[in-house]
């Protein structure tokens, strides 16, 4: 793999002066935060557009209203919503793109060339009706793909050329690699931002986020409400965080209490969700309304209820000889027992397909023999069965 720390490619890509560098929109209805070293102030709440539905009137009104309320960052790619994500986003941005970041994104592989990457940039600009991307992201990225990025005649050459022409201003990446690998990625100096999942239930990337803050890299925290899991009521979380408000509001506050997070990117699907999240972001002053360390301590007290017997989704227990999706069941169990999400857990467990359901378990114990964390899988599945009212 090319030496990403040599400085040569980094220097070449960073010398280009960005075009179209107007300040971002700011409204009294929203709070704004520093976006790394880009010079931008990004809205505390941003919008991920991957959950836009098939009703285009709803999509148009939702995106347009988000801009009106002060949201100035929208994350898109051509590959969400069955290939329709950007088509569904664009109508709500008509005559409203000035002072707003609408990011594009595409993945890379060993076969990606400068020509194919540039072609994708142009296509996404055309779909969105934009003249340039303030941010374009290398999607589904990881340290193992750094060589694809840096190879001669590849992605880096396309990015350099697009920046020369004013079509891209800043470059970020998204993905699900190990935290230590993402730290290596941001330490190359090639990226201005990263987008990673981060919420009350999943703090895996907290070390990466901390390092990004030290380096002046913008952090977009996706899944702040854990894909809707944290929209369910939890008295346990209220007590742990010392907050008396809806769980979704607590979840957003937790993410925004982290000083190294630039924006919480939520996949809102209707105006009610948008209005509530905007209100939460606008009302919350992390400097006076929360102690992040105390919030983390509260979350850790809840996690300690399982005495370290928490499934890490390593999947060593799989495949189950009876077809049971063990990691999915144990993830549901963790959120129920640690965070008090009982109603959600019962509903979520009932959605598991019959061929993967715990009711197929014959208690053989094969999973427990394989588990590196000595998790009492059969006991936990039995409690889940009792919650659902099914035989086990």
Describe this structure in words.
With 392 residues, this protein is an alpha/beta fold. The chain has two domains: 278 residues, NADP-dependent oxidoreductase domain (TIM Barrel, Alpha-Beta Barrel); 82 residues, no CATH class. The chain is built from 17 helices and ten strands. The strands form two sheets. The chain has an eight-stranded parallel β-barrel, surrounded by five helices. A two-stranded antiparallel ribbon has the order 1-2. Helix 7 links the parallel strand 7 and strand 8. The termini are far apart.
CATH architecture call of the largest domain: Alpha-Beta Barrel
Helix content: 40-55%
Strand content: 5-15%
Radius of gyration: 22 Å
Main β-sheet, in a few words? 8 strands, parallel, barrel
How many domains make up the coordinates? Answer: 2
Q: What gap, in angstroms, lies between the N and C termini?
A: 51 Å
Order of helices and strands: HEEEHEHEHEHHEHEHEHHEHHHHHHH
Q: What oligomeric assembly is this protein in? A: single chain
Question: In terms of structural class, how would the helical and strand content be classed?
Answer: alpha/beta
Task: Strand order, main sheet: write it out.
Answer: 3-4-5-6-7-8-9-10
